[in-house]
Design a protein that fits this description.
It is built from 7 helices and 4 strands; from the N terminus they run βαβαβαβαααα. It is an alpha/beta fold and 202 residues long. It has a 4-stranded parallel sheet with strand order 2-1-3-4, sandwiched between helices.
């Protein structure tokens, strides 16, 4: 019996939010819209409702299309595990649109399987290494910025023009903390924090 059940899987992280390119690519390969499963979640794990639903439908008569190999997972271990589940346990074929050599419908002999597994392992390793490199550079960039004294995040709001005068009266005991906070139009806790910072800086 030929492969007559065509499915597609797309994943976007919560930061990407744009699945259009993947959906278009899947439809161009002939995947019916009702057979496209989409998750908008992180790739750190496989707690994905749509992916799990898809796996339950796959069998020996299925072909699964994905746009790129990293849609299945981020780490080499995860990718390899999911590939094994789909191709070995479920018996389904996988077609990676961006990488035609990763098409399990081709070369069903031992050499073809070996080449496919080898390419998958290489791509998975590169994907994981790239992910780790990006995060390492981010961490190093943050550490370097902190070392230079760069303030990360939104710049603090400038102090009110009367802050210096109010602070001086408050410091001399002429004005209570509550009154000082009211004079500079700040919540009590914010005024205490700003006053402490002001004292350090001056």
């Amino acid at each position: 019996m030929g492969k007559d059940k065509i499915y597609g899987y797309a994943r976007v992280s919560t930061r990407e939010q744009n699945e259009d390119r993947q959906i278009i690519a899947l439809k161009e390969m002939g995947v019916p819209e009702q057979n496209i499963f989409l998750d908008k979640l992180s790739g750190k794990n496989f707690e994905r409702p749509q992916y799990k639903k898809l796996l339950r439908k796959l069998n020996g008569d299925s072909v699964l299309y994905i746009k790129s190999i990293d849609r299945l997972g981020r780490s080499y271990r995860d990718l390899s595990e999911q590939w094994q589940i789909i191709t070995k346990e479920k018996g389904a074929d996988v077609v990676v649109i961006d990488m035609p050599i990763l098409d399990t419908r081709r070369e069903k002999n031992l050499l073809g399987t070996f080449i496919g597994d080898l390419i998958l392992a290489l791509l998975s390793y590169v994907a994981e290494a790239e992910y780790r490199t990006i995060h390492q550079r981010q961490a190093e960039g943050i550490a370097a910025a902190k070392a230079r004294g760069v303030m990360l995040g939104r710049p603090p709001k400038p102090l009110p023009e009367n802050f210096n005068e109010v602070y001086r009266k408050w410091k001399e005991g002429i004005m209570s903390t509550e009154e000082a906070a009211r004079q500079v139009n700040m919540p009590l806790s914010t005024y205490r924090y700003k006053a402490k910072r002001y004292e350090i800086l001056t």
